[in-house]
Amino acid sequence: MRNSGSGLDLSILPRVINVNGTMTSLGASIMVPEAIAALQEIAPRFVPMHRLQREASQLIAELTGAEAGFVTASAAAGLSLAIAATMTGLNPGRAEQLPDTTGMKNRVAIQLGHMCHYGAAVDQSIRLAGAVPVPVGQSTQALDHQLEHALAGGDVAAALYVVSHHVVEYGQIPLDRFVAIAHAHGVPVIVDGASEYDLRRFLQLGADVAIYSGHKFLGGPTSGIVAGRRDLVRAAYLQNIGIGRGMKVGKESIWGVMAALNAWKTRDHDGIRAREQAALDLWQNAVAPFPGVTARRNPDPTGNPLDRLRLDIDARVLGASALAIVRAMATLEIPVILRDHEVELGWIQLDPCNLHPGDAEIVAESLVAVLTRARAGALPEPDVTAHRNGGILAYLNPDLF
Ligand SMILES: *Cc1c(COP(=O)(O)O)cnc(C)c1O
């Protein structure tokens, strides 16, 4: 069976149902039709790239309220480029010198509770530019005086603030307060909002640069958006002559994410929410008959307008652990990938953001089948250590190549 025009056979890849979220390991998100059309449109053409980025800047400015913006390869790339910008300014010699930061301010303050891992460590995106992360506070607590102390040295180029479900949810300095302290020390604030819905809030709260992923909620091709103060955006863009070269973005990603941004303006957000709620209802009803499974709606922890279904698994009552459910669902004929960040605490989540028509029903049927096997004591208990280290083991898998 040949796919339309590519010459490749798509059926060599398993069909996967993603109720995990916008995961890089699963190909991020479902690209919106406008973005797909944009890729097709621009692929055969030559385009003056600076001109294209200028158009992107205007659209980014319109949607984010920023003075300017540009598109890069990914949000992670945007982080390194924005950090670099705060060290080099508009000096091309300095941009070429990185990651050697001799003669530049090179420290970047970040709350320890924000030093998360989104598939790679956020502090490595700082170090990649040649900068040195300066952790503020402890894992579950950062206080104003600790940030002030970190910024007082005078060699701090930037302060980085991460908004994400991956970060510690309590005990951190709120963004507006973080900005006030940083600005009092003349230090710009960069916000990593890669996976956030609200394209305006962080700049409104005073951040100098906000970074978004183009391939998460926006449904664009793989890309990142750097938006904010004109001088910093220009300096970040300059990094394409240096460390940014290995993070090069193509014309197709720029045009594609522009189409996604444009579509975002008229997206039927209420309709999407209604469909998501219907899926959550379906799943909640499907698991209701199973003792040892408690289902409840879980609002997104960073305020994105979406709920997930949280399933608390009492392994002694059900007959299998939360991890056993995750593994069993992932190894079905049509694999269903659950959200398992907190699985060792005995709960899993189902994220309704990336469903194709018909997927929700398959998820419900799969849940019933797997929970029925669990109740019969027929689910094997997976190796917890192997699961915990699974992200790395997948890269090291000798069967890959
Ligand atoms: C996903 C994510 C990133 C990385 O985004 P990419 O565009 O995939 O590089 C960075 N930070 C946070 C908080 C994320 O959730």
Automatic annotation (TrEMBL):
Keyword Signal set for record: no
InterPro entries the record matches: PyrdxlP-dep_Trfase, PyrdxlP-dep_Trfase_major, SelA-like
Protein origin, superkingdom: Bacteria
Keywords per UniProt: Aminotransferase, Pyridoxal phosphate, Transferase
Keyword Transmembrane helix set for record: no
N6-(pyridoxal phosphate)lysine modifications at: 216
Organism: Pannonibacter tanglangensis
Name the UniProt record assigns to this protein: Aminotransferase class V-fold PLP-dependent enzyme
UniProt-listed Pfam families: SelA (PF03841)
GO molecular-function term, one example from the UniProt record: L-seryl-tRNA(Sec) selenium transferase activity
Family membership noted in the UniProt record: Belongs to the SelA family.
Requisite cofactors: pyridoxal 5'-phosphate
